Amino acid sequence: MKPTVQHWLEYLFLRAVVAVISPLGILRGSRIGARIGALGYRPFGIRRGVVTRHLAACFPELDDAARDALALQTYEHLGRVGVESALMSRLSPEALADLLERVDGTDVLERARARGKGIVVVAGHLGNWELLGAFLAHIGVPVAAVAKHQINPLVDAFVNRTRRRLDIAVVFDDEAVRKLPRMLKDGYAIGLLADQAGLGAATHAPFFGRPARTPRGPAVFSLRFGAFLMYAVAARQPNGKFILHLEEVPVVNTGHLEADVEATVVRFTAVIEKWVRRYPGQYLWAHRRWKRQPADTPPELREP
Q1: Contacts by residues 46-50 (CB-CB < 8 Å, ≥ 24 positions apart)
Q2: What number is the average pLDDT over the span 62-75?
Q3: Which residues share a beta bridge with 169?
Q4: Beta strands in 92-136 (DSSP E)
Q5: Residue 133 DSSP code
Q6: Which of 219, 200, 1, 208 is nearest to 122 (CA)?
Q7: In which element (H, E) is residue 228 found?
Q8: What gap in Å lies between CA 253 and CA 256, rounded to an integer?
Q9: pLDDT tens, residue by residue, 264-291
Q10: Smallest Cα–Cα separation from 144: which of 172, 170, 117?
């Protein structure tokens, strides 16, 4: 698609932000991002109703003040992710290494590699999902990220140049079915965000007790090709650095593919929920996770 004037303005603004903030370093830049993100909650109120409804439904034990504080934290976190992701274009290998405080689950990674059939990395919009792939590549895992084309072709090219510079192979979703099987055979870890489902193949799995439309891709690729299924999250710590958490997701494999896919989707969704509960302020609550529920969903389990 030929870039429009608006595309160029957006792209030039992005490059200007990177040029101004990058000399400050990613940790200070992240703090600036938090202040910018907070404006989305107050005073602008961008999707504030969606966020507060979701938090009230998922954490009914919290009072209004606690939910308000948690909601603000999620906006600050999203601002941090935005700035950190933009500054990745200037991130040196040394700075990337310094951001990674430690890896929890190296034994999981060893078991995954020992199988020799590639790794399906299932993740959600938790922590910094852009840095997640860079951290995996940094510790020696060949990574392929499945991505969608962004509306702005200039920003799309900028983001994917950054990913490739950090040793992340980019596979667009419209070519995933053709390319990913070969990459799994070659030992790649393919990264799939599995907490947002568009109009593609999906299963309704319980997420915080409510049926949520969930992509089937991680389960399908793991079952069809015998790949190791692993959950991963790059979770921000109070000092601004990250812990890379890795966890095996046991695949259900009874020989009945359709039922096994459904059961495996339920399993990895439960793992995503577990980690969201651990880091609730680092989740993308602004997304309507319970949209397009089954017609027979009872009223009390409908979208908040």
Answers
A1: 46/286, 47/286, 50/285, 50/286, 50/288
A2: 97
A3: 144
A4: 100-104, 119-123
A5: H
A6: 219
A7: strand 228-236
A8: 7
A9: 999 999 999 999 999 999 999 999 999 9
A10: 170
Helical (H) or strand (E) element with 244: strand 242-248
| Amino acid occupying residue 123 | A
What pTM, to 2 d.p., does this model score? 0.95
Q: Please give the Cα distance from 242 to 131 (Å, whole number).
A: 9
Q: Rg of the chain's alpha carbons, rounded to an integer?
A: 19
Distance CA 89, CA 79 (A): 17
Tell me: pLDDT of 6 over 80: yes
Rounded CA-CA distance 22/245 in Å is 27
CA-to-CA distance for 40 and 18, rounded, in angstroms?
20
Q: Does residue 128 contact residue 84 with C-beta atoms inside 8 Å? A: yes
DSSP 187-200: TPEEEEE-S---SS
* Alpha helices (H) in 146-256, listed in sequence order: 153-165, 176-185, 217-225
- Quick one: pLDDT band at residue 200, thresholds 50, 70, 90? confident
Q: Which of 143, 147, 146 is nearest to 133 (CA)?
A: 143
Q: How many residues does the chain have?
A: 304
Which residue, 176, 178, 278, is CA-closest to 218? 176
Residue 204: name the closest of 265, 284, 270 by CA: 265
User: How far is residue 21 CA from its own chain's centroid?
Assistant: 24
